[in-house]
Specification:
By secondary structure, the protein is of the alpha/beta class. The chain has 13 helices and 15 strands. β7, α8 and β8 form a beta-alpha-beta unit. It binds pyridoxal-5'-phosphate (PLP).
């Protein structure tokens, strides 16, 4: 007898995982399906964590993270945004995803509604559903010049019963970045209607037209119901560390402590020493990493532009390319077949919800050599002219 809650049982698996399963054992596959760099975490971050482990930093910690890491986050916010963030607004979480989960637990609940600007990373919407919410997606508008926000559609969606508005900028998978004016409009909307604004800024350093993306922290008052999610994963090549942070209004600190206690009971002490080094000494690494992503982006755009039937949707942030292929509507079948036959791993657009159904995503935070080979393989696969 299946005792799983029906709504969890009914929840579809991530289509990215479906492609992964069909391609992971294909010899020599070039995997561009996941959102992570192909380089390990740099030594200047690993060494302090190893030293801390050797020095016996292996105990339970403060639920909001060790004080020196929270202080490092304060220095980081001061340096990159010029902002003073009070200590009672910061919590270290066991990944950005863990921050998402905690915010959904605290702010949603059975019978609630959440609005998400889509296309978006599927895990976010699943966390909302797990926490009882009905999710309303508002798709970005897609045109030849890229993605844009339909503010009126967001306003219409944020009706009675909506507890949370989720926005990611730079976004996964689209790379769309919000403007200050659009952010001001969303802040006003959520203030007026008493809605929590959850701003996912995990790609804040992966931008190509400025050193750091715009943050809601730059316009919000500390008391505003603005909850920022961030992560060490993307900017510092630390996906496997499972470390993130969240910034919230001061009243939320005891809630964050409680929910961290009842979810993970706190992060790993020794890892937090590595994260301090990432924040304090990471600028050179980030500059190099963004330059590498920029080069990867140029390779992919140049090659896709020459492929018949392909149209790429341009953007200015994150490390993904999204494109459509004329004659491909079933992106899951397309990606599974490309993984098995052409040995290139990509993510199907249908994974990312409204607005991405017919698109394909690939991650270009990879070596030039791998990207050129992946593009050769894609070109060969497309030249067969198959429709999906
Ligand atoms: C938009 C977005 N938010 C949050 C996360 C979570 O990052 P992590 O759990 O690795 O810190 C991801 C990861 O891909 C993401 O793309």
């Amino acid at each position: 007898m299946n005792l799983v809650r029906p709504e969890i049982d009914a929840m579809p698996d991530s289509p990215i995982l479906e492609v992964w399963r069909s391609g992971i054992s294909v010899p020599g596959i070039i995997a561009l399906w996941a959102g992570e760099p192909d380089r390990p975490t740099p030594g200047f971050i690993c060494e302090p964590a190893i030293e801390a482990l050797r020095a016996g930093k292996t105990f339970y910690t403060h639920n909001r993270g060790i004080p020196p890491l929270r202080e490092a986050l304060q220095r980081y916010h001061k340096r990159i945004y010029g902002l003073d963030i009070a200590d009672n607004r910061i919590a270290i979480t066991s990944s950005g995803m863990n921050a998402v989960e905690i915010l959904c637990q605290a702010l949603l609940g059975a019978g609630s509604k959440a609005v998400a600007i889509s296309p978006s990373w599927p895990n976010i919407l699943r966390a909302m559903t797990i926490n009882g919410a009905h999710v309303i997606e508002v798709a970005l508008h897609r045109s030849n010049s890229g993605w844009s926000l339909d503010l009126e559609a967001v306003e219409r969606a944020c009706a009675d019963g909506v507890k949370m508005l989720y926005v990611a900028s730079p976004a996964n998978p689209t790379g769309w970045t919000i403007s200050r004016e659009e952010a001001q409009a969303l802040l006003k909307l959520t203030r007026d209607r008493g809605i929590a604004l959850v701003s996912d800024e995990v790609y804040h350093r992966i931008v190509y037209d400025r050193p750091v993306a715009f943050s809601f922290l730059e316009i919000a008052e500390p008391k505003d119901n603005v909850f920022v999610i961030n992560s060490f994963s993307k900017s510092w090549a630390m996906t496997g560390w499972r470390m993130g942070w969240t910034i919230f209004p001061p009243y939320f600190a005891p809630t964050a402590e409680k929910l961290i206690q009842f979810n993970t009971s706190g992060g790993q002490e020794f890892l937090q020493y590595g994260a301090i080094a990432a924040l304090d000494q990471g600028e050179e690494f980030i500059a190099e990493f963004v330059a590498r992503c920029r080069a990867g982006r140029e390779i992919v755009s140049r090659r896709l532009a020459k492929m018949p039937r392909v149209r790429e949707i341009h953007s200015n942030g994150s490390f993904y390319s999204m494109f459509e292929v004329e004659g491909v509507t079933d992106t899951l079948a397309f990606c599974k077949t490309a993984a098995q036959e052409a040995r290139i791993g990509m993510a199907p657009g249908l994974a990312f919800g409204a607005g991405a159904e017919t698109l394909i995503r690939l991650c270009y935070a990879k070596s030039a050599e791998n990207l050129e080979t992946a593009m050769d393989r894609l070109e060969g696969f497309l030249s067969e002219g198959r429709r999906f």
